[in-house]
Amino acid sequence: MKKFLALLLVLSMTLALVACGGGNSGNNGGANNGGGNNGGSSDNGGNSGNNGGNDGGGAGTASGTFKLGGIGPMTGDAAQYGTAAMTGAQIAVDEINALGGDIQFEFQAQDDVNVVDNAVNAYNTLKDWGMQILVGAVTTQPCISVASEANTDRIFALTPSASSTDVTAGKDNMFQMCFTDPNQGKAGSEYTKENFPDAKVAVIYRNDDAYSTGIYEAFKAEMGDSIVYEGTFTEGTQTDFSVQLTAAKDAGADVIYLPIYYQPATVILNQAKGMNYAPTFIGVDGMDGILDQEGFDKSLAEGVLVMSPFSASATDERTVSFVTEYQNRLDQLPNQFAADGYDCVYAIYEAIQAAGITSDMSNEEICDALIATFTSDSFSFDGLTGSGMTWSTNGEVTKLPMAFLIKDGVYTKP
Fold it and tell me: Which domains does the chain have, with CATH numbers?
């Protein structure tokens, strides 16, 4: 993998910006469902479609109205991820439909509350609706189950943010917009070694979560003896990290790597301050959104490094347009998950164009055509979360993760 100094140099070219919604049943759609959010800016539509010349095999003219489903948590503890991803997807749908072209989308998002059974119920609801292509699921464990269902039914699926390799393993129809957990862990180790070469490193991770352990294992494999302490926690024990922080401090750790989500990270940052322990914290994409958590003191995140493929503070026209529209809808800044959801829809749109897919084709025909196009040497995609993105036959995306420094409550370049 390229060194992170090189990654940071391409920030201005690549960046413009889940894993985790209504009632106890996954059968209820969120408030963003069914194309109900109209009036999205069409500025980005003119910037997309640049891969239409990738013929994916010389098919005819793409046309028709496609039923696009989405699954993610829009209520519950992980609602920030799912709401962001589904809102980003809805904005893209509205922009594409506003172009008035031959390709249109009907979009319906279902809430899975980050619960596997709910996610499967949500999938079945969308299938009964007539879903032809799926954006989701947003979080890893629900997505693993949904991916198996979609594979059996031969429905093409592109997840914004379920990053475990288990999501795509053995399923040729399942693709990822986010980079995988092992890739992120390796990238984190390279960044740490390059920028903190003499540091003593501690890791605090959740050992009952596939996302957290997947990143941790790849990070550990590269860091070796630089790791002086490894602390773990589980879902029910993420309210007190005093034991882990004390052990890291006693081990002399001056860098703490956190391959976790933002909710436990806020507790860690608060408790570290309370014990006058100020190491450099390095987080992963699951910590994107920490600044928007209700009641969180943003000063606690001052100096934290977060690895993410998107920054809402980027100044290119496409990002500014997206951020403005997202703020109009939710009155908050979009995070990486929102940008990933947006990119999923545009990548599918461009692949439909490239393959000449029509909406009257069977789900299996659409799925096979999209698989062939996404894995074609001639297809690449430029989005908010990266440029020149390509996909391997195992569904893994190739793009560059970035590191951002939180300063004065916003992401900045280190």
Answer: 16-179+317-400 (3.40.50.2300), 181-308 (3.40.50.2300)
